[in-house]
Amino acid sequence: MYFLNEEEKKKLLRGLIPKSRRLDVADELRGWNWYAPPLEPPYGIKLALYEVANSYCPTNRDLFLRRVMGVKTKPNSAMVTGKILHQVLADCLTNAKRNIFNNGLKSSMGPMTALVDADTYLQDGFVANLPQEHKGELKRKIKILLEFETSRINARVQEVLSKQPYIGVDALVNQAIPIVTEQKLDGSFLGLSSNLSSDAFTFAEPMILDLKFGEPKPFHRLTTTGYAMVTEAIYEHPINIGCLVYAQFKDDRLIINRDLHIIDDELRQWFIEERDNKMQMIENEMDPGIAENCVTNCPYYPTCREN
Known about the structure:
- By secondary structure, this protein is of the alpha+beta class.
- The chain has helices spanning 6-23, 49-53, 61-67, 77-103, 118-121, 125-128, 132-163, 169-176, 221-235, 265-283, 301-306; strands at 180-185, 196-202, 207-212, 241-250, 253-262.
- It has a five-stranded mixed sheet, sandwiched between helices.
- The longest helix has 32 residues, at 132-163.
- It is globular, with a radius of gyration of 21 Å.
């Protein structure tokens, strides 16, 4: 799902990348200037990146309850499903690389033949608590996802092999599957957790990718922005492009929409403002109040509405 189609590649190479170079992002908003305002963290609090980027609760009271009041909740069905599907995709890409490295080019005709079984994921502790009908639906989605990604990777491997008769396994993996999944990043430079994990990163563009299984939200771009700034802080090279991958299941098909965007000054300032405001809320123990329009499947709904 992280591989762009031909139209998206053209949009990226002919449109977004040249435009991002002309935009000239303000240097003080690049991650490598983490030690000076406005990027310098105003408090000693460490936030998870999702805590800065997410605003599913309009007042962010979920963050207050979790970090100040110590309220613990169980993930809802949508959260469990998203977690498992993220893991399935990461395993799919990793296993494909492993198969090529372990078996060499002789088995490259079928690099995805030894994938884990869909039932394996149903043994997850959180999945065990789902209603039976939800488990069946989750298993169906896992199979659709595996089938889709298998065919995409096999096609990419065959395309590279058809052009490069003398290629080695290392170059084949990097050309056919140029994606790093679950990249571990230290976000402490920007006041974030030292154990961040981005969904995917490709050095070829370079570009931060984030996978979503829900409805698009404007604040989703803060996730790619945050990871881009953290990456800049660590490696000190610019990251200008983000890509949100929205996946939906329709009947037995996977429908994918990708939001390619420039990580510009506006997004960077927005991310820093969110970080600073949420740090201040936690530091000063400021209850932001209950939102007028709560999402009923919010894990904190009973705490806000029923207590």
